[in-house]
Prior knowledge:
The complex is a heterotrimer of chains A (312), B (121) and C (202). By secondary structure, chain B is mostly helical. Chain B has helices at residues 3-20, 22-25, 33-57, 61-81, 92-113.
Amino acid sequence: MMSLSDAALTRLRDVVDRPDAGDRYAVHELLGRGGMGAVYRATDQLLQRDVALKVLPPEHPEDIARRLEREARVLAALEHPGIVAIHDAGRLADGRPFYVMRLVRGRRLDEQVRDETPGERLRRFLAVCDAVSFAHSKGVIHRDLKPANVMVGEFGEVLVLDWGVAKRAAEVAGDTSHVLSAETGDTGDGVAVGTPGFMAPEQLIAAAAVDVRADVFALGALLRELMTGGKVAAPLRAIIAKATAPTASDRYPSVDALAADVRAWLDGASVSAYAEPVWEKALRFYRRNSALILLLLAYVVVRLFILWWRGV
Amino acid sequence: MNKPVLGLVAGGVLGIFDGLTALVSAPEVAPQIAGIVAGSCAKGLVAGMLIGWFAKKVNNLTAGVVFGLAMGALFALPFALMPDPTTGQKYFWEILIPGSLVGLIVGFLTQRYGAMVLARR
Amino acid sequence: MVVAAYRTPVIAVLRKQWSLEMEDAEDLAHDFFAHALEREWLVRYDREKGRFRTFLRRCLQDFASTQYESSRRLKRGGHLTAVSLDHAGNMSTAAEVDRLFDQEWARSVLTLSLDRLREECGASGRQTTFDVFVAHDVDGADEPPRYADLAARFSVPVTQVANYLHWARNRFRGHALETLRALTTSDAEFREEARTLLGRDA
């Protein structure tokens, strides 16, 4: 029996693990690994460009293979500037399913916003809402929205990644594959679905209907995460509280409704989630229309002056 | 509301208001108040429409405000130069300054609040 | 298959944790497997309670501890055992020993897989393919030789080197997974052991 050196051991481990993507894709370094496989940087030899190649580990069970293929189909149906584009999909020579997508060079959203103003953070958030709302319009629920799954690309574009546990709305009702095991945090097949802290309560209950409001919950949690580190205005806190309400019926009915309230706050308009006291309403009105109010006051002053002058 | 319509409405409303204030600043013209208000309103409607049309063509707050001021002054000038038929008194500055201010306000309103209509290609 | 896969890691643990010389460790490992088969420890393995590798590690720990106690009693009584275990100077932590066991187990499994690949290549007339693979990915693991050098060494066209490596790596991967399958008793255990085999637990 041959004796393997440590270097040989490392190399052979890599030989077993690393995907052989044939002549089309040259696989380079590992970018990340998750419950649904590993993502490598690869080069598309035909088009001469870098891509990201997602592939299951060699020991994958078949139901996970079907899940990856479903993820590829979901991505293919979602053509949107805020959703990472898929270029190719198939099975490797060793039978492992894979798909190839745009290689995103950038930073995670939560890292990016550390240097940004609250207004900029909210605009990033609205971009995420746009992408998720589009997915909902195509009947797809993400189910695992969190800061780690949102990247800001090198051109400032916001991209929602990792649709690995996304499902079409029609498939979700009664689907138990999203149930967490209390002990391991995994589903029965060993793949974690959703992330604690960003998962809506109904995602933890077997056979409960999970709909777009689960993503609303996650977006509310995401917003809370993005706005930490400073004083958060009362209307924004109210928006976050409404989005992350434990009961789905208490939340915004859609991502569009959540985004509309965030936009309203950015524009200085009233926010539906916040019961504004009268004095705050007046102050807000003044701030939005201060120039006009001052001009009208100037007119009144001029009139009064003329009155006084004529009296003199 | 598009800009010309906003200018029309704002000009008319502010024109009525401007006319009514004559009762306060020059009570002796009370018998002619109906005519004053009507004239002020008409002046406001026409000036307002022109200011709104300008705002549709030129999307610039400063330019809009200056144009509004100029239109307000231009339309107020004939009335400012006209002596009161009853008293023979001229209310030159009392008409010109507020009238110009109203034009300025309408200019501001149409630039800031009017909805832009994108050109159809 | 079990002895072939676990012999080397058992010896490594005995040497590290119990400070044995190579010969003594080999003898004790032989005794351990003999005991295991004779007393049917391995049959008592319950897959519900965890991985086989973990179970075997515990059996080894119990066996070696028993031997250690016996050797202490015999020392006090003036008799010497064939193998005396000296635990006294060993500062390895349990975690370090476990890591060593896992690493040696992975080394064993991949070595077995390499042997299977050699047999397959030998049987199918692909000896050169195997030699190229070993030269590049095993012997040349630190600094892989250039394709041109391999081509010259084995008198094959340069383009053929890539084909040989491609084929051999795919077959090696298959043998590694088959070997792992033979050592595991369920899909879940197979996936867990694959993570350890491929060093993803680290």
